[in-house]
Amino acid sequence: MICKRIFFFLLSSLALADSFPDSERVLKYVLTGQEIIFVPPIFGQPQVMRWTRGDGRGVAFLDELGELEFPEYKNRITLDSNTAELTIKTATHEDGGNYDLKLKMNNKDLRFKYRVEVIEKVTKPNITCVMSGEHQATLVCSTDSKHPHLLEWDSHGNKQPGPNLTINLAGEFDDRVYRCDVSNPLTKQTATFAASKCFMDKPSDGEHDINLSKRAKQIVINIIATIIIIITAFPIAFFVMRKKCQAQNEDMDSPGSCDKLQKVELSVEMKRTISDLPCQRTFTFI
């Protein structure tokens, strides 16, 4: 009996194989995980109802013998025998596509066509600032949403579609705020960005600031290298002077001769320095 009903369903489906322009279909958007609900605009109770996918696969079938269940939608659909309303539970992306309904009511054949788009909620957008000059920047709005969505900027009441917005900056204390909206037909998320953050965060500042950053890094490296050289050279110089002093002490056979020799050398060096000055006569050494 069931095989006969399936055979009858397939024959009737072939009769519906003629194509219909998509413009005649009723478009429905559904979020993943939610229900797909079809409500045909009919008045009265149909005697036969046949729901199919656009490619002819069976979804639901009901006649005077009762409802015929299809494995693909087992435990997922509810068919109202009085109104032909169809509910598909827990929508997935695979449920998207064309659906056709053929009714027999009052000895008349009626057809209704639908198209379903299963989409996801959009995610909150992220805004970054790209400096293009000292007082100009481009705000870039992005989102992780994979399915079709709309990005739009709100600049103090002025709407601009697209992910990029070029702004003029009034300095580090610019308190103007810009808003980016990301949306699809069922959901919407918003993020705001203060112009002053372009100077604080600078997540991406263009070629000029990249070159500036490279120069700053080189300066830091040079400073660190100089400090390392000084720290390394000081103990070496001290060690050399100490050895020299010890050698001189051994030659002079006097424990304090090294200190005396250093004082003598320093005095001689100071005299030589002072003698080179034009005002050498005004200096007296004690």
Write a short abstract of this structure.
This protein has 286 residues and is α+β, with helices and mostly antiparallel strands. It is 29% helix and 33% strand. A hairpin with a 4-residue loop joins strand 3 and strand 4.
Describe the structure.
The chain is α+β, with helices and mostly antiparallel strands. It has four helices and 16 strands. The protein has a six-stranded mixed beta sheet with strand order 1-9-8-3-4-5, covered by helices on one side. A four-stranded antiparallel beta sheet has the order 13-12-15-16, with no helix packed on it. It starts with a helix and ends in an 11-residue tail after the last helix. Mean pLDDT is 79; it is low at 4-23, 203-210 and 277-286.
Rg from alpha-carbon coordinates = 43 Å
Judging by the overall fold, what is the CATH architecture of the largest domain? Sandwich
Structurally, the number of domains stands at: 3
Helix content: 25-40%
Secondary-structure element string = HEEEEEEEEEEEEEEEEHHH
Secondary structure class reads alpha+beta
Tertiary shape: elongated
Low-confidence stretches: 4-23, 203-210, 277-286
How far apart are the first and last residues' alpha carbons, in Å? Answer: 132 Å
Strand segment tally = 16
| CATH fold label of the largest domain | Immunoglobulin-like
Instruction: Characterize the main sheet.
Output: 6 strands, mixed
Q: What is the CATH superfamily label of the largest domain? A: Immunoglobulins
